[in-house]
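User: tokens in, sequence out, please.
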């Protein structure tokens, strides 16, 4: 009897716009995500609300973006505000085919003008196993990221049992690849694309990926495969390419 598989996908959706911010492509993004058929989505730059754009853009959905995408086949979802401004807010979201037992959004922002957070959810799979999922979008400044990585380590140490399956996925903005040692030494995490291909995936910009920005780290799961989705239609959607990984539970 084979172990059940779990498919995880992480994607910075660029608030539903294409890489040049000229076209609103959220409907095409949802179609592509439905076709990718992941069990759990870790999504960044999800627009929770934007009062100006919802009146200016013809195809702007009536629902918040997380709920709009979730209608494609993920009955359970959690959204955490990452940045709040006069017109609305955006943040991270976890969409799941399996129910949440709990979730929490943790502010890790050293600057008020660059709000960042960690969205930590606990999901119960069909077999009853609890899996911890942390969706992240780290800052652009090195000092900021170091503080956020320390906060992430503290959160996992205090809230995730050592024997519990754990996924930490998102846009790490770590193009210099400096987070690896801290994740391995402090948390015992491995990155799935590196574990299966020997190096991190280059995911930014989507039309010619050169920077390794997006990652899926894991602990307590067996990696089966990981792919960068850079083929059509992905290269015409967000400015990031998504990563999709399969694990055995």
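Assistant: Sequence out:
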């Amino acid at each position: 009897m084979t172990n059940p598989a779990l498919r995880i996908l992480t994607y910075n959706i660029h608030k539903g716009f294409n890489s040049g911010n000229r076209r609103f492509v959220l409907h095409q993004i949802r179609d592509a995500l439905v076709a990718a058929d992941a069990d759990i989505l870790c999504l960044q730059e999800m627009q929770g609300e934007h009062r100006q754009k919802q009146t200016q853009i013809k195809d702007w959905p009536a629902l918040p973006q997380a709920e709009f995408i979730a209608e494609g086949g993920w009955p359970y979802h959690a959204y955490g505000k990452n940045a709040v401004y006069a017109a609305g807010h955006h943040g991270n979201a976890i969409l799941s085919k399996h129910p949440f037992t709990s979730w929490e959004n943790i502010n890790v922002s050293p600057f008020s003008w660059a709000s960042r957070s960690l969205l930590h959810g606990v999901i119960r799979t069909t077999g009853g196993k609890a899996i911890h999922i942390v969706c992240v979008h780290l800052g652009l400044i090195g000092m900021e990221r170091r503080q956020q990585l320390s906060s992430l380590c503290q959160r996992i140490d205090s809230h995730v049992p050592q024997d519990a399956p754990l996924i930490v996925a998102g846009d790490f903005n770590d193009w210099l690849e400096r987070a690896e040692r801290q994740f391995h030494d402090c948390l015992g995490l491995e990155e799935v694309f590196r574990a299966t291909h020997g190096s991190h995936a280059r995911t930014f910009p989507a039309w010619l990926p050169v920077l390794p920005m997006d990652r899926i780290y894991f602990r307590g799961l067996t990696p089966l495969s990981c792919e960068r989705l850079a083929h059509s239609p992905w290269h015409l959607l967000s400015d990031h390419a998504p990563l999709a990984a399969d694990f055995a539970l």
